[in-house]
């Protein structure tokens, strides 16, 4: 059973998402919160698998809630998915760096929301297509972040290759096919890269790939 926490200051959004999620046999909404501070407290109390968190909220915004969840060892199993009203939000990068597993726009169709919850629960990165494109364009428009490439020397050549393919949005199965290895070996390369780079999830591997210059405009 995938346990979900809803954190949004709009009751209508929460009730709509809850009504949809509660219809699924493998998903359970364990709690709702109307602001970031309440959401953080409920995350600690219920330890959900997924926290759907609005990026713009009173008391604590979604970025700060994400940062606090990621920093708390007791909440290591909580995957944060940020909700936004826009196809792009200036807080996208901060939340990814803070540890968000991905982003969804609130006008997402029901089938995609259900898929997103299940994907995030598996620990995979999740970014709405419109946000992914803007995210990539934003990174490609900037030079690599100073010092961001230091972790590259810790990676083997195969781990680097796997990180590049993760940043391109490929699944484990697709990465395995591209690298001519088994899906299990591909997953091992990815997990080892995450451990070496201290990445909370695949979304942070995407951030690293662009900030370090591992993925370049010509290489995408």
UniProtKB/TrEMBL annotation:
Q: Which residues form the Response regulatory domain?
A: 3-121
Database matches in PANTHER family: TRANSCRIPTIONAL REGULATORY PROTEIN NARL-RELATED, TWO-COMPONENT RESPONSE REGULATOR
**Residues that bear 4-aspartylphosphate:** 54
Query: What is the protein name stated in its UniProt record?
Result: DNA-binding response regulator, NarL/FixJ family, contains REC and HTH domains
Question: Which InterPro entries does the record match to this protein?
Answer: CheY-like_superfamily (IPR011006), NreC/VraR/RcsB-like_REC (IPR058245), Sig_transdc_resp-reg_C-effctor (IPR016032), Sig_transdc_resp-reg_receiver (IPR001789), Tscrpt_reg_LuxR_C (IPR000792), WalR-like (IPR039420)
List residues of the HTH luxR-type domain.
Answer: 148-213
**Does Cytoplasm count among this protein's keywords?**
no
GO terms of molecular function:
DNA binding
Show the Gene3D superfamilies listed in the entry: 3.40.50.2300
Instruction: Give the SUPFAM superfamilies listed for this entry.
Output: C-terminal effector domain of the bipartite response regulators (SSF46894), CheY-like (SSF52172)
What is an annotated GO biological process for this record, any one? Answer: regulation of DNA-templated transcription
The alphabetical list of record keywords is: DNA-binding, Phosphoprotein, Transcription, Transcription regulation
Which segments cross the bilayer? none
């Amino acid at each position: 059973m995938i346990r979900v926490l809803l954190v949004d200051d709009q009751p209508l959004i929460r009730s709509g998402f809850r009504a949809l999620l509660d219809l699924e046999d493998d998903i359970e909404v364990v709690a709702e919160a109307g602001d970031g501070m309440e959401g953080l407290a409920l995350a600690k109390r219920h330890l959900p698998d997924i926290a759907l968190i609005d990026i713009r909220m009173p008391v604590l915004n979604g970025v700060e809630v994400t940062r606090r969840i990621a920093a708390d060892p007791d909440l290591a199993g909580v995957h944060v998915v940020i909700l936004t009203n826009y196809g792009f939000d200036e807080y996208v990068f901060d939340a990814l760096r803070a540890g968000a597993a991905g982003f969804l726009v609130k006008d997402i169709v029901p089938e995609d929301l259900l898929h997103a919850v299940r994907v995030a629960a598996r620990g995979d990165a999740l970014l709405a297509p419109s946000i992914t494109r803007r995210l990539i364009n934003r990174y490609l428009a900037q030079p690599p972040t100073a010092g961001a490439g230091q972790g590259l020397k810790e990676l083997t050549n195969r781990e680097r290759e796997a990180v590049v393919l993760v940043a391109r949005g490929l699944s484990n199965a697709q990465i395995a096919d591209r690298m001519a290895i088994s899906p299990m070996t591909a997953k091992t390369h990815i997990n080892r890269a995450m451990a070496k780079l201290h990445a909370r999830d695949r979304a942070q591997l995407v951030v690293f790939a662009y900030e370090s210059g591992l993925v370049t405009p010509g290489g995408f």
